[in-house]
Amino acid sequence: MNGDTQPKFRDVGEYTEESDTGSEEGEEHEEGHKRRRTEKVVPIEQPKWSNPDPYTALPPPSQSNGPKKDIVETIRKAKLDTMLDAASSNPVKDNIDFISFDDEPAVVSLLSDNDDDQASVGSNPIGPGKNRKRAYSQISPDDTLAGIITEEWEPTGYNLTPWMPRSAEFTANVGLKLHKEIVDFYEFVRPTEYERIVRQDIATRIQTTIQNWYHGRGVQIYCFGSYPAGLYLPNADMDLVALSPRYLDSAVPTFCLGMPDKRKLRSVLRSAGIFDPVKGADIIAFAKVPLIKFTDLQTGLKVDISFENHTGLTAQGTLKKWKEQFPDMPILVALIKQFLCMRNLNEVFHGGIGGFTIICLVVSMLQHMPESQSSSLEPHTRYGELLMNFLDLYGNKFNYRDTGIIMEPPSYFDKLKDRDRINVKYQDDRLTIIDPNRADNDISGGSRLIAEVFDCFRGAHALVQRRLNQIRLGKASSESILECILGGNYYSYLDTRARLRRVFERNYPDSAEHVPAEELQPSMYVPSSRRRY
Known about the structure:
This protein has 533 residues and is an alpha+beta fold. The protein has helices spanning 27-40, 71-87, 141-145, 174-189, 193-211, 226-229, 245-250, 259-271, 311-325, 329-341, 355-367, 382-397, 450-472, 483-486, 491-507, 509-512, and strands at 109-111, 121-122, 220-224, 238-243, 281-284, 291-295, 302-307, 403-406, 411-414, 433-435, 438-442.
């Protein structure tokens, strides 16, 4: 009727009972609850002009043993699928965070601070789906298209896009508008100088405490991961590794090898006031990489300490080289990290993908885009183009079940045909990225929720594309383009930075005079209705 070659909605008959099983848990219970409630309410008189009830006005379903089909939800689901299908194009056909720390632990034993005399108990981590689901009837298709935002990041009525300038400059070029907003977002989340100094001070305080301990003489504390690479978000954990003199000389581990030594070290750190004695510290004893986890008392930042393992340090040279080779990489990494963080899909422990895997995905895309290394991309729109290319590649085109990624030299491999050639064990239902520094290591082997991650990328691409079209047509309800995928409650960032600023000014009063006052303070976090653009 509208001339489209593809129908807007699918035929109700195309949906089988099996196709309805993918909806949110509790939907069937909620549906039954609605029917029972409808049966109890008996209206006095049915108005002749009322709209028909889709549950009662439609012809009766055929007799079957299956549950009653919800027509409203079926139509809603068909519309959502159609929107997703329209966003995807040109799928890749036959495309021929353990660094050791970015992997899912084979066995995890978590010993709390008050369990010194108890046996280690295996932990069952809360998956990303827990504590973030709402009733399906309360979620619009837009809310779920790019994944469900966790409760911590749920909008609370305040400004959802604190990176937007108070007086946004008008531009009719939507590509330029997206590029500028990405720049503003990165300026909002990128590391500041005082944050770097305060984070380094955490490592210094811990090293001094350990070296003053009899069993820790000569032990060095090194930072690895996102902090030394400058690729961290404001609330990022601090990843530290303790290396003994003997390990540094001959790679023979001697420090904190057993549980008794780790308990003693925990007591030493507690006595020195490194962490809050009430909150305590956890010993993850039998993971592939044993850790002591705690929250730093001064800064409130989370800290992980591992022992006698240099693998994470080896990757620092690789990250430095990639940053020099691809100057756009840090900006893309910040966007993707924040996007996954808001959906609790950035933790390998919970089945998501860690920071190093995110970096590898970004770098791999740039490696296979010659134009990203030249001036062929329009400089005033390049960030927007790169973001959309990333979401489209991993959301619509890349097939992780068939294809693996090799970082050095940049290439892909067929996970079925090249199994004998690739010297690494991998699983077909997970993302596979060969460690650039260890050819026998799959850095993304713990990505058991990779399908959900890539589905979120797919939905994000569709939402951003639609927002660009709305702005182009003058129909957008907001000046922000990124709000549709990154809008949320950013008070935790502003609060953390305010705390780190106070620590910096207290511990480094002389240096504080030479660091300009940051604009990103909690006072900027005002309701949207009071912001001027």
